[in-house]
Amino acid sequence: MLATVQEERARRIRFHFSVSVAKLIWPVRLVGTRVVRSAVFHKSLVKGAPEKPRERMPFISKDWRSPGDSWVKTDEGWEKLKVLECVKRKRCISECSSTSDTENDTENGDNEVVPPHCHITLKCTREIAGFNGLGEAVRRLDFRSSVRDGRRFNYVCALLRLLVSGKGITSLPGGAQRLLLQMLEEVATYVSDSQQNINVLRGLVQQLRALLNQENQKCWGKPLGSQSLWAEHVQTIQRIQDIASQIEIKEPGPNIRPKLHDLPEECVREIILRITDYKDLEASASAWSLMAALISEQRVWRELSHYHFTKQQIDVVLEKMCLQDTKERHRNWQAIYHALRKMYGVREELQYAEILAFCRLCRCLFWPSAGHPCIVDQCPDFRQRVQEAGNSNSNETQPVPPAKFLQYFSL
């Protein structure tokens, strides 16, 4: 009996000693830029020990914000070198395309035209540590220049509205905060120059004013973070408010022809048929009696219903309203549209003239009007290999609303 107890005690001592030795000399091997501990040696050294889950080592890099990237200090703060080179190349391309001289075209003919795009990491693995930066994505997609594009203006403003009204700009990194306010100042300048979308600017200014009052009440009247950075933000917000308060709508001069009131009824009807928001239709009806008469036509609401909703959805609402057997000219399409809107809602991607798109093949965000360097163009056999793997999808691109765009980032 005593021999059995001594043998058990010796076995336990050997076990604890082997575990302590294994922890000291547990080998480490490098895989790319990651550090992975080998558990094979540990298992062979300690027999009979319970298997532990593999530990995840921290990412080892010169800069924890981005693996192995070079950072450059600019007037606007620190920025990645590759992002600055990308933005500079796009700026040079836009300047070359705006000039019409043949000499400049021949001199700059060797420049590679790279449209604005940004690759997105959807899933992190042990081999790939993915991180999506909001500031880098906004720079790569050229949001600041997109403010002056009439097709992209509403999309950019909707994104800014979500960023300002959500957790506030103080929850973003310092570079993203500065870039966001620069975009807001660009919106104010564009609205002041074009005298269009003034209501959008007023809504953004009102949100900024509420944000400023909210942040000033935190921490005994002072917001968290850098005081110098916040003082710079306050100056930028004040400039935006000054620009918005100085906007005056100027009526076109008498020599400018034709005006809206001079257009024939057919042209005004075609303008109305291209409006996709019912709120804009109601506002136009209250502005001019001719527009009110044209908007009351059933054709306007019928085409608006077919634009936003499918035939199956329309049939469900018609059956619910007991209008299935009624002739089309006797139907109240305005009431049908509002019933469809309340039942199914309006798809957000149809509210913008241009919306960001996501390529499923190369995991890339881009503007559809500009395109992007897809992997299919570089490797024509890639699509066939994807189909052979069983991942064939007819929709290679999908629209990205502003709320979906922000989900790609850790905000």
From TrEMBL:
<dbReference type="InterPro" id="IPR036047">
    <property type="entry name" value="F-box-like_dom_sf"/>
</dbReference>
<comment type="pathway">
    <text>Protein modification; protein ubiquitination.</text>
</comment>
<keyword id="KW-0833">Ubl conjugation pathway</keyword>
<dbReference type="GO" id="GO:0016567">
    <property type="term" value="P:protein ubiquitination"/>
</dbReference>
<dbReference type="GO" id="GO:0019005">
    <property type="term" value="C:SCF ubiquitin ligase complex"/>
</dbReference>
<dbReference type="GO" id="GO:0005634">
    <property type="term" value="C:nucleus"/>
</dbReference>
<keyword id="KW-0539">Nucleus</keyword>
<dbReference type="GO" id="GO:0005737">
    <property type="term" value="C:cytoplasm"/>
</dbReference>
<protein>
    <recommendedName>
        <fullName>F-box domain-containing protein</fullName>
    </recommendedName>
</protein>
<dbReference type="InterPro" id="IPR040394">
    <property type="entry name" value="FBX25/32"/>
</dbReference>
